[in-house]
Design a protein that fits this description.
The structure is a single chain. This protein is α/β, with parallel strands linked by helices. The protein folds into 2 domains: about 120 residues, Rossmann fold (3-Layer(aba) Sandwich), CATH 3.40.50; about 170 residues, Rossmann fold (3-Layer(aba) Sandwich), CATH 3.40.50.150. Helix content is about 25%, strand content about 35%. The strands form 4 sheets. A 7-stranded mixed sheet has the order 11-10-9-12-15-17-16, with helices on both faces. It has a 6-stranded mixed sheet with strand order 2-1-3-4-6-5. Helix 1 crosses helix 3.
Amino acid sequence: MAKVILYGAPAPGLIEVPAAAVQTSPLILGSSDLAGLSDGGADAATVLAPPGTLERDYVIAQTLRAVKPGGALTVLAPKDKGGSRLRKALEAFGCTVSEDARRHHRFCHAARPKAPVGLEAAIAAGGPRIVEGLDLWSQPGVFSWDRVDPGSARLLELIPNLAGRGADLGCGIGVLAGPILASKAVTGLVCMDLDRRAVACAQHNLNDPRATVLWADARSPDPALEGLDFVVMNPPFHDGGAEDKALGVAFIRRASEMLRRGGVCWIVANRHLPYEMTLKAAFAEVAVKADAGGYKIFEARK
């Protein structure tokens, strides 16, 4: 049976993908690591290309490395999210490209060249590294990969020294978790994120026996994560590039479920996101600790 690589989750009916295709997106739990696939071990690949240039070129380069010479490669993306630039990106790797468009997407088709060019440079540019100035491991494509997100920075200014067992939901590379672990009163911190790349970086960055880093969906119930003393989070509010307020709502409700009575949740949110009603329904006490610079900081106690 032919081995086919799949990166991403194209919308149903957009393109036919074999049921046995090997999923490699780091945003899909249980997927294989594209970087860990053997050279030339796949017969074909379908890639829903991410919009960021460094991330996109990294994914295409890793896919070309993993597909055998002559193997079929299809790369697609929405026209307004990098689709118009796909052909040029593939041609830069030495591919001969044919192109078509449908359902607001651009599709590029190519055979893997015998000797593609520029793979090592693209893989190095888009791979994990210690980011200068941030002094943390990160990788293009991860949320706020090369800087501290302003909301997280504001939250760190206000969080007091915490104590006991806690969780960092949507931990990213560990920007919040690192300073929280500076408190010796913290006995354990479970950090979880849906992005496998962020998890791998956080495991490097949080070199502390009290930290447990999990590749997991923070919205999913886990009996082992109950009765916590605190939760911190800068919850996501985009899904596939589109704003989705339900993500933050789900994080808030999950945080409440995880906490013991009297436990505290610290959350930062973009000012326009309507989380107040959800917080008041899930917690006994809710206080706005800051409202400036486009962000609100909440302290919610169960």
